[in-house]
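Notebook entry, structure prediction.
Reason for the run: the old model in the group folder had no record of what sequence produced it. Starting over properly, with the input documented here first.
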Amino acid sequence: MNLLEALQHLLGAQYVLTGDDAASYLTDWRGRYTGSALAVVRPADTAQVAAVVKLCAEHGAPVVPQGGNTGLVGGATPDATGRAVVISLGRMNRVRTVDTDNDTMTVEAGCILQNLQEVARNANRLFPLSLAAEGSCTIGGNLATNAGGTQVLRYGNTRDLTLGLEVVTPQGEVWNGLRGLRKDNTGYDLRDLYVGSEGTLGIITAATLKLYPMPVARCTALLALASVPDAVAFLSRARAGFGASLTGFELMSAACLELVTRHYPQQRLPFDGSVEQHAWYALLELSDSESEAHARERFEAVLGAALEDGEVQDAAIAENLAQSHAMWHLRESIPLAQAEEGKNIKHDVSIPISRIADFVAATDTLLQEHFPGVRNITFGHLGDGNLHYNVQGPVGEAEPAVLARQDDIYQLVHDSVHAFDGSISAEHGVGQLKRDELVRYKNPVELALMQRIKQALDPQGLMNPGKTLQDAGQV
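New structure, fully documented this time:
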C-alpha cells in the first residue's frame, strides 16, 4: 500500500484531498508562494494527526502543518516537489475545557481565534490575543509563529498566554503537556521551544491558555503628534500614568491614514483639517477595573498634561463603543488600503523603543537616497517596539517595478534594523520569506544551536522543511 492509499484508509477518502480539491491549501494568503503536495489531509483528532505523521515518517514524506493559512511569510506552504503531505488542522476546533477558577481554557489547534475570544467572553473572561486576521486565523498558527497583536504591551505575545501544549512529535508520538500550571520547574521548558517554531519541531494539536478578568471599562483615544520622538515621549508618560491599565499603543504615520481615508472615504478622522495636518497619529486603549468614569478621568488627566506640554497636538477620546470601533477600524484598515494601492514590500521588525525614532529617521533617509520616491507606510505596536515598516512604490509606478527592487529594499531595511540592535521578524515568523536572511543577521552560535535542536528532534528533517532554517546541505 503506498502512502496516499494508506492515508485514505486511515482518514477516509473524503478527508484526503488531491488535485483541484487541494488547490486552495497550496498557495499562501498573500499569493506569494504556491507549492505542490502529495495530498492535503484533514484529521479529526490528535490520534489521527499522530498516525498521519507516523505514516509520513515511515515513507520519508515531508509534513507541512497548516492552520488558517493566513501567514505572511510562506510558513504553511509546501515546496514544489509534490512529496509533502499538508496537515490541515481545521477540523480540530473543539474547546475541551474552560476553568474559570484557574483562569484557563484548553483548546484544539484548529480553533479560530475570534471564536476563542467569544468563548472566553461568554465565561466572563478575557482572552486578550487580538490581531487583524482573528476571524480566520487559528490558535495553532498563532502558537506556531508566537503571534503578537495589539495587546502585547499589557498581556504579552502568544507564548506569554500559553501554560501548556499537546504536541505530535516527528516520530508520531504525542507529548501531553496540557498542565494549567503557572509554576512548573521540572526540567527543560518544552512549551517555549515549540511555541514560535513554525511546525519545524512538531505539530501543536492543543493548548492550555491563560484567561483574565473582563475589564469593567475601556477607553480609546486617537492622538495627533508632530514626530516619532513625541510619540515615544508620550508612551513613557502613558506608562507612568496608566501602569498596567495601558493595553494598547499603536503608532501610525499620516501616510497610512491618508491611504485609508482615500480608499475608504466612509472612514473619517475625528479631527478638523486634512490627515496630513499632523505627521503621526497614535491609538491608545486603557482597560480599567473600576468604572468608565474612573478610566476617563485618568485618560483626561494624562492627556491634558501632554497637550499642555506640546507633546500631543490634538486628541479625541471615544465617547461610546461605536466611536472606539471606528478608531480601531482606521488602524485595522491600513493593510487593506495598502493592498488597494498595489503590491508593497512588507517588513515586520522590532527595535528597542528608545531607538525607534532614530531608526525611522535614518532608514527613511536611506530609502530616499537609494530609491527616490518610494513611500514609507509605517505603523505598528509602538508599546512593544514592533513596527510594520512597509514600503510602497512611488505614485504611479507599476507593480513589477516595485517588486523588482524588493531584495535590495529588504537588505537596506534589514541592515538598518540590525545596526539598531533590532530583529527582522517581530511577530510574523520566518517561514520561507526570511529564512535566508536569518543567516545574514543571526549570531552563528545561535544558528548552530537551532540546527542541533532541529537535528535532535527531527533527525529525518521531515517537519516543515525549508522553513525557518536552511536545510543542512545549504548551511
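Summary: The radius of gyration is 23 Å.
The old model has been moved to the deprecated folder.
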